[in-house]
Write a structure and sequence with these properties.
By secondary structure, the protein is of the alpha+beta class. It has seven helices and nine strands, in the order βββββααβαβααβαβα. The chain folds into two domains: about 70 residues; about 110 residues, Ribosomal protein L30/S12 (60s Ribosomal Protein L30, Chain: A), CATH 3.30.1330.30. The longest helix has 25 residues. Bound molecules: zinc ion (ZN).
Length: about 200
Amino acid sequence: MKEKVSKTERTCLSCGETAQKSELFRWINANGTIMLDWQGKLPGRGVYTHATSECIEHLYKRRSFPTRFFTGKKAFITPFSDIFTHIYTLSLGSFRHFCSLGLKSHVLTVGQEGVAEKYGSGEGRAAIIFTTNDISAKTVKKIPDTIKKIATALPLDKEELGASLTGRPVGIFAVEQGSLSDRLSFYATIMTRFFSGDVHADK
Ligand SMILES: [Zn+2]
C-alpha cells in the first residue's frame, strides 16, 4: 500500500524526500521571482526544500521548475552568493524571538547556577540546554555531566546571546522541552550550519 503523505508533511523539491513542513523551507513565486518564505505563510504557489546547503543549492541550479510553481526565466530575490548569510540572519532573528517568548512564558532558565540547580540532577532531563561558543572552561567544569552531554553549542558569544535574553552576558540557558524548544533547536541547527555564510557544496 502506498504511504500517504500526512497533512503536515511536504516533499523536498530537490531530493524528493518528505519531511515535516516545520523542518522545511518554503519558497514562493513572488510575481515572477523566487523568494524564501521564512514564516511559511505568504500567499502564492510554493515549493519546499530541506534546510540544507545541498538541497538549497540544488534549487538554485535547477533548469526548470514544476509549471504550476514557476515558468519563464529563473530569478531569485536573494542571489545564491548571499542566501546562506541571509538564512543565518533570519535564523538568529527567529531564535531571539522564541527566546523572548520563552522568557515571558517562564520556560527558560538562564545562567549556569539556575540551570545546574533545575536540571543538574538528571531527573529534569526534559530540557534542551544551549551554551555559547565562548563559555569558559572553568564554567564548563562546573556544569554537571548530565547537562554537558546534552548541551548544544551556539555560534554566538555571551554578549550576543545575552542581548536576546536578560541584556547581560549569558553563557548557558535551558528551555523546557516542548514546541518552543523544538523551534529553538531548529533555528540553532540552521545558525550553526550557515554560520560562516559561505557554504560551498560541490559543483
Ligand atoms: Zn531535500
